[in-house]
Every structure is written in C-alpha cells, then in structure tokens.
Amino acid sequence: MGRWQPDARMRLQEAALALYSERGYDETTVAQIAERAGLTKRTFFRYFADKREVLFWGAQFLEQRMVAGIDAAPASASVFGLIGAALDAAAVQFEEVREFAGQRYRIISSSPELQERELIKTASLATAIASAMRKRGIGETAADLAAHTATTVMHIAYTQWVEDAEQRPFEQIARQALGQLRELVAAAE
Amino acid sequence: MGRWQPDARMRLQEAALALYSERGYDETTVAQIAERAGLTKRTFFRYFADKREVLFWGAQFLEQRMVAGIDAAPASASVFGLIGAALDAAAVQFEEVREFAGQRYRIISSSPELQERELIKTASLATAIASAMRKRGIGETAADLAAHTATTVMHIAYTQWVEDAEQRPFEQIARQALGQLRELVAAAE
Description:
2 copies of one chain form a homodimer. By secondary structure, chain A is mostly helical. In chain A, 76% of the residues lie in helices and 0% in strands.
C-alpha cells in the first residue's frame, strides 16, 4: 500500500466520482473513496486535501493553460482574440476529461457547497486571466472586463457542452457563445 | 428598549460599519454592534440574521430593482438595452447608499469570507436577471450571457465608483464600462 502508485490519483478520482454519483457527495467519506480505489486514506491525503478537492484538482491546470494561451497569442491579437485564445486553451483541458465532465458537473450542481466552491475557483481564474491580459499591455478595466467575459463564456459553454446531444467539441460551443455575446452587445439600444 | 425603533436598522448598520472599520470584521461581535447603536442584541436579530448580513441586506432590493428595470424597459429594447436598464436601476440603489459604499467595499475586500459571500450574492443576482431576460422572450444562452455581462459590468463599475476621485455618478461609470466592453468584443480578432 505504501508503494508508489502511478495511477493512484486517477483511481481515487474515478472512485470518488462514482461514489458521489451513487450515494451523494455529502454521504461519501474519504475512507469509502480510498477503499473503492483499493488504496489507503493516507494515500488519498497524499493527493488531495479533502474530498471536495477531488472535484477541483484540475483548476490549477486550467488556469495555467488559459494564461499560457494568452501569453502565446500573437502580438497583433485584439482583446477579443485573447479571450478566444484563453477559451481554446480551456477546450484542450476539457476535452481531455470529457469522459468525466458530465458526471462532475451533475455532482457539483447537486450541492450548494460545491457550487460555492466553483464560484470561488472561477473568481480566482478570472483574476489570473486579467493579470495575463494586463501583462500584454491591456488597461486595467479592459483586462477585468475581458477576463470576466472569458470565464462567463467558458461557464455557459461548459454547461451546454456536458449536455450536448450532438457531442460537439467544447471549442465550437465556446466560439459560438462568444460570437453570440458579440452580437448581443454590438446591437444598438 | 423593546419599543418600536423606526431607525433601528439604519443605526445598527452604521454602528456595524463603524466597528468593522475600526476593529476589523472578525473582531466585532453582535453585542458590540447593538451596544454602539444603543440597542439590544435581541433588536439586532429582529433585523439581521447575523453580523455578516448587515453588509448584504441591500442585495434583495438591488435584485428587485434590476429585475423591475428590465421588466419596465420598452418592448423594442435590445438585449444590450436591457443590460443598460438593469445597470441604471442598480445606479439608483447605489447612489442612495453612496455615503457608506466605500466603507462597505473596503470591509468586504478585507475578508475572504465576505468576498465569497459577495460572489454568491452576485451569482444569485445573475440568475434573477437571466430569468427576467427570459421572461422578455430572450433565449436561454443569450439571457445567461446578458445577465453575467450585467453583473460583471456592475462589479467593475462599482469598484471604480467607490474610489472615483471625481465622484462621478455610478450610472456614468457603468455606461462607460459597458461601452468599453462593447468595443472590446466588437473588435476583429
């Protein structure tokens, strides 16, 4: 059990998602997750601070990727182009975990505590995106507006993506939502 | 003490803001707030569920006003026009409490717990705005995009407004931020 478990994190995540779906998030304990994964509680805590963090473990990579997407955009990119670059970077991450995305989404939607956690993670993500935008010379207000627009579009597209009957790629759904926002705010009063 | 206190709520709010600013939010107790206001703890709990709610008491009126602003907009209003109507309604509320807005803002900024509460209240506000938009026949995705755009612009404008050296009206700052967002997303990639 104390041995190096190369796939321990993945096994714990799969076990947690299965148990949260079957019994409910509140009713599931770390001991049950570890047991289902064939690992110890001690191993669980080597990978995750608590049972909630199993669901939000990817947030740091999402942030890194979206920031990297902004950093790597061509110098000529407009703010709108940078929002698109951030969303494309998010798409890469989401497609990697597509298999579990719907399950994770339904678990989070079932719990006010988890929804609050998601809000906090998203606010922190917007702060990181705004900072990456400012590093590209974009003014304070424009960077804040663009960062929140990126996370808003990301969230709305994510909700559609996990339930999309046609299983379209996230990138396509996000681009469509961003285009729709553009049309909405471009329309005359 | 048990008498009807027509201005009790206002006195409790002023006392709470003063104490949160002087001693810090975490260090202030309900007993201290009541004492400063010349009232009892029992009176405090007649008006507020806890010391946190003193800071968020206006949220329900803000929501009612923004929803009413959308409901009252002319039938010809575009989605962009409805976002503007919601922001104008928010402006009415904010100007009424301008005197305390900066103090309240600094107290909330000083506490992660209060910032989280603000995020939750804002998410709930966006849900109400989206619902008001849908009642006007706007599609699901457009309503969600518009509602989150409204709360994003509101928050960014609020932050500028409480610290505005020229003390410009909220409405003017919000309209400017909304116009800036329009320019950002209208620009070509």
